[in-house]
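so my prof wants the structure for this chain in the tokens format not the other one, which i didnt know existed until like an hour ago. anyway here's the sequence
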Amino acid sequence: QLQLVESGGGSVQPGGSLRLSCAASGLTADHHVIGWFRQAPGKEREGVSCVWLGDSRAYYADSVKDRFTISVNNAKNTVYLQMNSLKPEDTAVYYCATGVHVLFRLCLSMWEYDDWGQGTRVTISS
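here's what i got, hopefully its the right format
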């Protein structure tokens, strides 16, 4: 059974850093992409970053480019999201997701994904 478990959320001041983890189990050969999404209160879920598991190609939303880095540890079946220079507008619940045959060019679209983790909360506040 496929399972995604996020961890690493917390509360930090603006300018701080956090590293989120997404531990995946039950992936099949058809699961090529893992994405990170976030949802702030009262807002729609938005794509943050995604990674191609085979070669670690990554894609980022403009709002996080140059601040966030996604990486893969295939030995641990874990995808990380290193978040630096955090801003109050980064406050949200962060989710990782995967799906069968996700198109990489659409990997920031939540509709490409079938399976989601439970989320981890990130709060940026002074």
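also thought this was worth mentioning. Residues 64 and 94 are 13 Å apart (CA to CA).
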